[in-house]
Design a protein that fits this description.
289 residues, alpha+beta, 2 domains, six-stranded antiparallel sheet, 47% helix, globular, disordered N terminus
């Protein structure tokens, strides 16, 4: 429930808007319409930036054509549209008139994921995200949790279980430092919140969003690449205040974060870059048609 670094909100994003009800709870709660608007804006912003780049780079005729190119490549490589758009935006552009975007690119071996019940052939990000959540909830012995992935300068909710709609809408996109995940990302280590109701890390809106879903404690594990940079976060949520997790639990969670973080780095450097290469080839052919 946090972001890896602070970024300004997109123009036009709504300010915090409390419910019109009276009392402390009303002062803490966002209206659903504001959450829906914010999530639409954040969800669309990265795609819109990618469309603009593709329009300029390949001389496409319209944003509809740029969107169709993104959507087609997303479906072909089984990558979320938002992930592909983020890759287009933050990957340095190919050299002008070059045939390949990534000439002489090395292809790293896919990391092993011991102890994770990954479905399929081990190349699907969705399957790995599902498996890491199952693994972490098994270790921490709770039915509630979520996975977030770093994308477009914030964390995007990628998977969840046992959490209600208000929670998942509130934390669909997060770029505030006032959660356990932001502390875990900044410090690059696991963070336990023993009691959400009293921990000072949360602002009141975040605290309310967590408590109202039935979570009273949380534990966040960064998913880090080979040099320790968080590429995502997995968090368990607990119905009662937590005591310390055992050394064995913490060690297992740390290893899971390392394994999955390295897999995410591999996925980016193979599957995502393959998708960008295909997108470039398709766009170049269209430009020269």
């Amino acid at each position: 429930m946090s972001q890896l670094s602070q970024h300004p909100a997109e123009e036009g994003s709504p300010a915090y808007a409390p419910d019109p009800g009276s009392g402390q709870e009303g002062a803490q709660r966002w209206q659903q319409d504001d959450l829906d608007l914010r999530n639409r804006l954040f969800g669309r912003a990265g795609v819109a930036r990618a469309e603009g780049l593709l329009l300029q780079r390949y001389g496409l005729g319209s944003t509809d054509e740029a969107f169709a190119l993104l959507r087609g490549v997303s479906q072909r490589f089984n990558i979320k549209l938002s992930t592909l758009a983020d890759a287009v935006v933050r990957t340095p552009a190919p050299d002008h008139d070059t045939r390949l975007w990534f000439p002489r690119r090395a292809r790293p071996a896919r990391p092993w994921l011991p102890g994770l019940p990954v479905e399929g052939n081990g190349t699907s990000q969705g399957a790995v995200v599902k498996a890491v959540l199952q693994r972490v909830l098994s270790i921490t012995q709770t039915p509630m949790g979520n996975v977030q992935l770093a994308e477009s300068g914030r964390l995007r909710l990628a998977r969840h279980t046992g959490l209600n709609k208000y929670f998942t809408d509130f934390f669909a996109f997060v770029d505030a430092p006032t959660t356990s995940c932001s502390q875990a990302a900044t410090q690059r280590r696991q963070i336990t919140v023993r009691d959400v109701a009293t921990d000072e890390v949360f602002d009141e809106a975040s605290r309310h969003a967590i408590l109202q879903t039935g979570s009273r404690a949380a534990h966040s594990v960064p998913l880090v690449n080979g040099v320790g940079v968080p590429l995502g976060m997995v968090s368990s949520h607990h119905e009662r205040p937590l005591t310390e997790l055992t050394h064995a639990q913490l060690a297992a969670l740390r290893q899971t974060g390392l394994d999955v973080g390295r897999w995410l780095a591999w996925h980016w450097n193979t599957v995502v870059l393959d998708a960008l290469e295909y997108l470039h080839a398709t766009g170049t052919r269209g430009a020269h048609a």
